[in-house]
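Support request, please re-run this one:
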Amino acid sequence: MKRSILLLLALVFLFGTVTVADAHSTKGRKKVFLKKDVITKDDMAYYIESYVHRKKYKDLYEKSNNRFYVEDFTKVEQKDKTADIFFTVLDVKNNKTFKDSMHFKKSSKGIWVHIDENKKNIGQVYTYISKKKSYSKYTVFFHCIVIALGAGIFIFMRIKRYLNTAEY
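Re-run finished. Output below.
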């Protein structure tokens, strides 16, 4: 009896735990559009880091490729469906840092959109979530079914065993 309960608990812990991936690593993650109501620095980091590195200063400097990196995110100011993300940029060529920001708004579809200084839409913001998290609504349901099925089999076996050992 005790072994069965311990085995059942071990299976629940084995399949019920969630692992956390490394921050800003895309390994084992799925790219999705950002639709959260309240955003954080980490939600925007994938998009902003890539945009700063490849496109943000392309028109300002001739050789901007691989020159600029986001060094640190300083703050997020969100008001309803708009947000400003402030960060520090490292200029590798001059080995200097400067502060910058980017503006975002939430579209009618619920996706965050990057807006430039001229109020022009640049692109939809994406982020990466763990593949386990993207399937979480299905896995929680699956885990509940497996646990209920396991408990049902366990109870059935106990009743069957009791009936076989009972004297008539």
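The first strand starts at residue 29 and ends at 33. Residues 16-23 have pLDDT under 50 and may be disordered.
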